[in-house]
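Limitations

Structures in this collection are predictions, not experimental determinations, and the ligand pose is part of the prediction. Treat each record accordingly. The example that follows, with 2-acetamido-2-deoxy-beta-D-glucopyranose as the small molecule, is included so readers can see exactly what is and is not provided: the inputs are given verbatim, and the output is the predicted complex.
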Amino acid sequence: MNPLSRFLVLFFLFIFTAESADPAFSSCNGDSITESANIDNLLDKLVSGTIQNGFIATSYGEGKDQIFGLAQCRGDVSKKNCSSCIQDAATNIRKLCSNQADARIWYDYCFLRYDNVKFFRQVDTSGAYLINVQNVTDPDVFNKKLANLMNQISSEAVKPASKGLGKGTSDISSSLTLYGLVQCTRDLSHRNCAQCLAIAIGNFPNFCANSRGCRVLYSSCYVRYELYPFFFPLEAQESLDHSSGNYKSVKT
Ligand SMILES: *[C@@H]1O[C@H](CO)[C@@H](O)[C@H](O)[C@H]1NC(C)=O
Ligand SMILES: *[C@@H]1O[C@H](CO)[C@@H](O)[C@H](O)[C@H]1NC(C)=O
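Predicted complex:
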């Protein structure tokens, strides 16, 4: 291969691997939408609204061709990370779900969903759990601290100024810190947000028992805890850890 074509191959490899990240989870249901241009137009609105405001719930089209969409970034994520996440989400949901009417895609930094039925303001717990297959060594202490932290950040999330976000840490031992974050979709009332989080956390024993880390990807709320930093802002000595353990996913 001559140097120019080698360069081109590497260049395109780089573009295509850097282009769009894999989602954490996705689901597609329902009939095919005939007016598929409406999906593209809706996705444009969802992307620009999310980049501007971190959240949007809107619709596109009229009558039986109307499609409803919601998109949101996690409240702690920068504008730049939000923008690239929601653009990946819009690109990939179109590939993964083709023209299906009910489509949802979850990333760590953002969530996007559309449907030909209006779904705003309702608690929807369909989605998945992503569970670290490694267990903690001292479940009794860990589970107490985890329950306290989840309580604390859930009550933070339902305060009006929080926009559905709660996050915090708890020291498990002198060398081990627990990190927790909850995020409701911003269309929910505070009461519905509290309900979604309570269901997600209440199901910890069924899905996440004794696990070192767990993520709840519901359609109305996101809950995550880990023994390493994963949310922003990072403390001076912290860095994001993208390689911590193996996860299995369980659909809800
Ligand atoms: C998020 O933004 C930070 C700082 O701009 C960057 O270093 C990091 O790679 C971004 N993460 C993702 C997943 O885009
Ligand atoms: C972790 O704990 C769960 C629940 O107690 C148990 O079912 C599972 O087998 C454990 N996994 C490992 C790898 O020890």
